[in-house]
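Listing S7. Sequence submitted for prediction.
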Amino acid sequence: MDADFADFVRHRGDHHLRTAVLLTGDWHTAEDLLQSCLGKLYRVWHRLDTSSDPDAYLRRILVNTHRSWWRARWRREIPRADLPDLPGGDGGEVRAVAEEVRNALARLPVRQRTALVLRFFVDLPETEVAALMGCSAGTVKTHTHRGLRAMRRMISPDTAVNRTEAQGSGIR
């Protein structure tokens, strides 16, 4: 059992960490979220049919735990207008675009962010997203539409032009 769980974490942990980063908007919070969720998953691992889809089970734990954390913490956090500079590197234009997209995603309401991450990063159909979020497929469509519209307003036109140029040149 322990070897199977360790193998699952080794092979799928990075994917779920990236999902957690997009859900939370913060790398450190995402690590905490994933660690907490992996602990919950480990406690029930022996009862799961791991041959079917343990990713789906962990995704549900991630979404539900993130939702409960957000509900508990939203009153205590103080929003800031200016974010601190992040350490940079020699990443170029693609990293700048990715950073701007992540920042815009982090500024969305939690339900819109969750819908966008599950639909476009995890690539789940609307019905699965609805089941994970505990709402209807129509509500997922609404959150997705509003989230995309808000992100288009937040991302500068220069970034959109650069993204189009990068895609045209084969850079992703």
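Caption to Listing S7: primary sequence and predicted structure tokens for the chain studied. The longest helix spans residues 2-24. Helices lie at 2-24, 27-44, 54-73, 92-106, 110-121, 126-133, 137-154, 157-168.
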